[in-house]
């Protein structure tokens, strides 16, 4: 199992998280499309943690085995939390005037998506799982 932690305190950290996610996906044997999906999802969640949560951390894990590639990411912040998760997960919702593709778009990129949020911050866990070709 491989594990990397990236502190998210500035825009440059988002690039590092994205590059580390892509590198981990490539090393695990994922194709270019899945590498891009994982890196994009990590980048989007990291951006949310930085913009809305005042920063945070991103943990990347490769839990692959001989049968499957299994990559996980957990992005957390200690911001005020998401007041209405259902609304935030709706298509087109944005509090910053952006296109609002963030959370629902990220959910579509991955196989598993779990969001927990409260007054002490937000934690989002994502996972991509692919069977190894044999």
TrEMBL record:
InterPro entries: HATPase_C_sf, HATPase_dom
SUPFAM superfamilies: ATPase domain of HSP90 chaperone/DNA topoisomerase II/histidine kinase
Keyword entries, A-Z: Kinase, Transferase
Superkingdom to which the source organism belongs: Bacteria
Keyword Protein biosynthesis recorded: no
Domain Histidine kinase/HSP90-like ATPase: 33-132
GO MF terms held by the record: kinase activity
This protein's name: Serine/threonine-protein kinase RsbT
Organism: Sphaerotilus hippei
